[in-house]
Every structure is written in structure tokens, then in C-alpha cells.
Amino acid sequence: MALKKFVSDDGKKITISVDERFDFSVHQSFRDAYIDADTIGSEFILDLSKTTYMDSSALGMILLLKDHVEKSSSSLKISKPNDTVNKVLEIAQFHRLMTIER
Amino acid sequence: MTGVTAGLSSKLALVVDDSAMQCKLLSVLLKQQGYRVVTANDGARAVVMYIKYQPDLVLMDVNMPIMNGYEAAKRIKALDKKDNLCPLLFITSLDSEQVYLECIQAGGDGILVRPFTPELIKAKIKSIQRVSDLYSQVKSLQQEQQKDAELAEQLMSGVIESRNFARDKIGILKKAAALFSGDIQLTALSPNGNLNVLLGDFTGHGLRSSIGAIPLAETFSAMTKKGFSLNEIIHQINQRMYKLLPTDLFLAATFVTISNHDKSAYIFNAGLPATYVFDQYGETKFQIESCHPPIGVLPNLIKDVGLTIVPVEPTDRVVLISDGIVEARNIAGDMYGFNRFERDAREALVQERNNLTEHILHKVTEFCQHVPQEDDISLIDIPCSGWEQKQRSNTPRFESKQTNHPGSEENVSWQWRLYLTGSRLAAINPVPIAMSQIQELEGRAEHWQNVFTVLTELFVNALDHGVLKLDSEMKSSPQGFLQYFKEREKRLKSIDKGFVDIELQCYLMPNSGRLVIRISDSGQGFDFDSYQSILNQEEDEADEACQKLCGRGIKLVYQLCESLEYFNNGAAVTASYSWQDE
Fold first, then answer.
1. Cβ(B410)–Cβ(B212) below 8 Å
2. In chain A, which residue's Cα lies nearest the Cα of B245?
3. pLDDT at position B155, please?
4. Alpha carbon distances (Å) from B250 to A35, B208, B239, B547, B563
5. Where is the composition biased (Polar residues) (chain B) (predicted)?
């Protein structure tokens, strides 16, 4: 699987962990990871520590997640992007839109 | 019965068997399935029949004289390549693993071993037909998609980008990964001679990424031609894209204005790799990184973020690139990267002037060798000179000045006024509004460009020096211009009082007309006596002195108008512009 999802015991913390390639191929499973979760007031963590490649459609997917998070008054944090991935996030200036923890 | 079903179907089967008896038997079964049937008795004949009839299904015996089934199957499959899937079923009495493997190797899509019941062969044909139907469905969808992509491509290059300004002077490189690229390159000339350029990269590839292309190109070109500033254009485009595009679709883009008048480049990089300013030796003078999220992500642009102003020399060039260049990979998986790009750009500028685009394309291709291109490759190379405003030096002058003096109110054809105060002065640029009034009332004409220049110069003077009390001395050096601009932004932000009053009066006469522009502001005026005397000096002497005091702006206005007069110690000005119908 190119994508894993962990939910904490209390169900409040949802970690979505993407594998090496974060591109359109994970589109469906990425969406499935958050769309049906009962997530009012949850904390979403997008773990990119294993990701080595990310394209602009991945940025689009993150924006969709952000939309979802805002609608369900949850929070979103991007966690541990490596240098290459962080460069992509930086060029898109995503730190102005969400929290990115290195 | 068989005849009836056969008549309803257009499907054609080719049966190949050296036994006439077997051919007949299979033909009957196929006809019951609704096929029309043709037959051949050896492999060579089968190939000929196949070419002649282009059947929808082939049943092939293995052992036959002249050419066996394997060879015939290979030849038939070689004819088809990938264009067509005509399923080929081997029929044999030899039941061994070896035979099975050879059948598949020869290109067979299945195998039936004798003896079999009619039910079994019917079932087999049905299953193989299912696969082939699916294949032709996929193929027709693919063709449709291809057609759409071709249409989008035609639209993009044929309609949108062919309208670009100065395509011969600006180096543009575009190499799409798919047929239709998500990259868009636009250039347009503003009425004051500034050049606006945009390099954009829509998320993804193909038709989906083209949704925003037309509104983007229209807004960019229309607003540039009306004389809106780069900031205003970006704001408007962002709002349109935000409303139009779905959440996951956006536009990473760099906007550039080259102003020969200000000797500056205005650069706004939202989501693209660094924009470069190179000097004539290819040394990097400035590198402008992305500092704003891509266009269409946020409902409004983030305040105070984005626009960078840098001084440029006429020999400099501004180079925009998309990520497809720096992220192009070679066989080892290494990226072409910024260092190679800078090195190759320098090489291009030192060795083969003006051939930056071709040189970079050559280098990137050389670097990647045969690795297929993953992303669109785009580059725009803009020379920083040659964008001076074309002046119409022979402005037609009025001959009968006395009889129709601008003051005579009863002759006025129309009149228009805009009185802007306080914070509205910071938010609204009245020049495009005035220009669209003039063009709506009097129609489009090339010479309105002169009016645009006059209005812009007079309004900017009233706002900058009158209301904002900025000292034009600051602008004397290119670095000073940047400082001037920053100070201007600061003062604009806190503006809460003051006014600029703009009034237009148009006098129409047979085959000619006059536009009187009156602009006054809340400022204290300026030392306009010495200024007036400068305007009255001879051309050469006046030039230098005038540049020092007020930039080239007012001199230009003076040249374009039939008269230019200051009142109220310089806080009010009346310019009279006249024309003759063409």
C-alpha cells in the first residue's frame, strides 16, 4: 500500500502516512483516508517522513484535505517532510496556509 | 435460423483449417453465434484473407500445409500491432504444455483442445469477445480523449498564445510532456510601453488543466491593454481563478512587468521555481524565489507579500522557468537542477547571445538522454530593452485654436468627472476607468494611447507629489526607485485624507476633436515656475534638466498635448489633447 492510516485510541488523532511517491496514483486512497472518518474536532497529521517525491497534484490533494479539515473544525499538520519534499512545499508557500513541522 | 442471426450481426469470423469438414463444422457453430464466416485452408491463405476481410475473430488450426498456424498467427498479429485487437483462438488436437506455450508465444489469445462440445466453443468465443469488446471501448474512449487534447492544444497555441505580443523578441521554450501542456505563456504590452509577461503552470496535465486557460489569457491581455498595474492584474486573476477552479486545481505562476521607463522589473512569483535576472555576461544579478501560494488557492492575495522590484539594465534579461526544467531527470535519477541551469544559461549568454532557449533545451535533452519527459518544460527569456513606448511625434495639432477654445462650455460634447478621496485613492486606479469611458463614448483608436500616457503621468504626479508629498529626487537612481516605491506603498496604506479630482471634457468637431483633461489635488503644489521655464527651453538643454526635476514623464505629456498649463501653484493642471479622425 502506498498509504497508511492510523487512528489513536480515542479516535481524535488521525495520522495519514504516505509512501515514497505522493502523486495522483494515491488520489483515491488518500481521499478515502479522511472523507468518511467521523472527524469533528479531530487532529489530522499528514506524515510525509517516508515521502521522497511529491508533484503538484499532491499539493492539490493536500488542499482538498485542508478544505475537509476546515469544514469539520479539525486541525491539520504536515509532519517531517524531507528536504526535497519540503522544497516543493516551500515553493508553493504552503507554510502560509498550514502548519508544517520539520 | 442461422441465416437470420447471421444477417443481424456485422461481426465477421475467419476460420482456418486444412480440413474442409472442420471448417464447415466451426462455421455452423459461429453462425449460430451471429457471425458471418469466411474460411481458409492454409496459413498463407489465412494471412491474405485476413488482410482482405479484416475479421473480428480468427479461429486457427495449428498443423496445416504451406504455412502452419503459429507462423500465420505471428504474421497476423504483426499486421495489427497495437491498433486493433482481433482475438485469435487456436484450435488443436495436441494437448501438451509445449503446444499451449507455443500458441500463446505466436500471439494467440486462447486455445481450445479437441474434442470439445459445441457449448464449450460457444462459451469460449463469448468470453474472448467480451475482452475484445472491452478493448475497443477503451480504444474509442482513448480516441475521444486524444481528440479533446488536440482541440485544447489547438486552442492554446493557435488561439491564445498566437495573440502574444513580440513573439519574435521574447525567447519562448515549451515542450509538453503530454500532447496538451498545463503550462501557459502570455505576453502583452501596456499602453505606457511596459511589457507584461506571465509563465503559468496549471496543476496536472491534459484537458483538465486547461479549464482556466481562456479566462486567464483574456483577463491578462485585456487588463494589460487597458493599462492596469501588475498588482491589479494579479488580484483580478487570482479572484477569477479562485472562483472558477476546483480546490485541487490551481495555477503556479510568475508575473513580470518590464518597465523601461522605471528601469525596473516587477516580479511576482507565486509557486514557480526562482525567476532569474542575468546580466549580459550571464551572471545572476537577482534570483526571485516564490513567496506567495499559487494563484487560485486563496480567495484574496496575502497582503504585503509578493511583488519584488529590481533595477535592470537594458542589457539584462529576465528568465522564467517552470519546474519541468529543474526537475528533469537523467537515467541515474539525478535532477537537472538549478546549478546546471545557471551554468548553462551563463554559457548561452556568453557564447551564443540571444539563444538561451535553444541552448537550455539542448542541454536538458543532452542531460536526460532517453529518459522520457515527466513534466512540461517551459522557459521564457525576456530582454530588458526595446520596450520603449512608441511615441507619435506627429500628433495632429488643431489649426483653428481660436474659434473653438476649450473654455467655451456650450460646445462641450460630453463631460466626465471622478473625484477620489482618502482611502479610495489607494484602492482605485482611475486611469483605466477614464480610458474605458473615452473608448465607450468615442470608440477605439490607436491614438488613445497618448491620452493614456497623459492621464497616467498627470494622475501619478497629483497622487505622488501632491497628495502623498513624495520627493521625485528620490527616483534619480535605479536603487532609489525601489526606495521610492516602498515609501509610496507605505504612505498609500495610511492615507485617510486628500483628494484627486479628474475631469474630462470632450469637444467634437467635424473630423476632429479635443479632449481637455483637468486634474487637481489637495497638495501644496510645487515650484512650477522654474519647471515651466524648463518646458519652454530648447529640446536638448531641457531634456537633462527636466529629467532631473520631474523625470521624462511631464516632458512627454508636453510633447503629446497641444497645451499644458499649471494653476494654483502647480496643484491643478489642464492639458488639452487634440486629434483628427483618421
1. no
2. A60
3. 74
4. 21, 11, 12, 44, 49
5. 392-408
Cα separation, B196 vs B236, whole angstroms: 15
Where does the pLDDT of residue B440 fall: very low under 50, low under 70, confident under 90, or very high at 90 and above?
confident
Instruction: Give the minimum alpha-carbon distance from A6 to chain B in angstroms, rounded to a whole number.
Output: 24
CATH number at residue B55: 3.40.50.2300
Chains A, B: CB contacts within 8 A come to 54
Q: Do A60 and B248 touch (CB under 8 A)?
A: yes
Return d(Cα A47, Cα A39) in angstroms, integer.
18
Contacting residues for B543 by C-beta, under 8 A, at least 6 apart: B555
Closest Cα in chain A, distance from residue B299 (Å)? 12
The pLDDT value recorded for residue A38 is 66
Pick the residue of B201, B247, B302 with the most A CBs within 10 A to test the interface with A by mutation.
B247
Contact B271 A24 (CB under 8 A): no
ipTM over 0.90: no
Report whether the peptide linkage leading into residue B115 is cis, meaning its omega lies within 30 degrees of zero: yes
* B417 CB burial (10 A radius; 0-12, 13-18, 19+): exposed
Mean pLDDT comparison of B58-62, B201-205, B396-400, highest-scoring range: B58-62
In terms of CA atoms, which chain A residue is nearest residue B270? A92
CATH says A3-101 is which class? alpha beta
Q: Is B145 helix (H, G, I), strand (E, B) or coil?
A: helix
Domain boundaries, chain A: 3-101
CA distance linking residue A76 with residue A67, whole number of Å: 10
Tell me the chain B residues in contact with residue A67 when contact means C-beta distances shorter than 8 Å: 247
Neighbours of B227 (CB within 10 A): 22
- In this model, does residue B87 exceed pLDDT 70? yes
What is the per-residue pLDDT across B376-411, written as a single tens digit (0 to 9) for each? 888 999 999 887 655 444 444 433 334 444 445 567
CATH number for the domain including B300?
Answer: 3.60.40.10
Give pLDDT, residue A24.
83
CB-based contact A60 B273, cutoff 8 Å: no
Same-domain status, B254 and B334: yes
Q: Which residues does chain B have within 8 Å of residue A56's beta carbon, measured at their own beta carbons?
A: 201, 203-204, 252
Say if residue B8's pLDDT is above 70: no
pLDDT for the residue B133: 85
Angle between helices B213-226 and B430-442 (to 10 degrees): 90
- Contact indicator for B524, B569 with CB cutoff of 8 Å: yes
Pick from B201, B249, B292: CB nearest A93: B292
List residues of A whose CB lies inside 8 A of any B CB. 24, 55-57, 59-61, 63-64, 67, 90-94, 96-97
Q: Strand, coil or helix: what is B276?
A: strand
Looking at the fold, whether B191 and B246 belong to one and the same domain comes out as yes
Concatenated DSSP letters of A17-72: EE-SEESGGGHHHHHHHHHSS--TT-EEEEE-TT--EE-HHHHHHHHHHHHHHHHT
Set of cell numbers at residue B116: 470439445
Write out residues 244-263 of B within 8 Å (CB-CB) of A.
Answer: 247-250, 252
For B271, which residue in chain A has the nearest alpha carbon? A92
| CB distance A42 to A77 below 8 Å | no
Q: Are B233 and B222 in contact (CB under 8 A)?
A: no
Query: Which residues from A are below 8 Å from B303, CB to CB?
Result: none
Looking at residue B531, which CATH number applies to its domain?
3.30.565.10
Q: How far apart are CA B171 and CA B378, in angstroms?
A: 11
Is B273 an 8 Å CB contact of chain A? yes
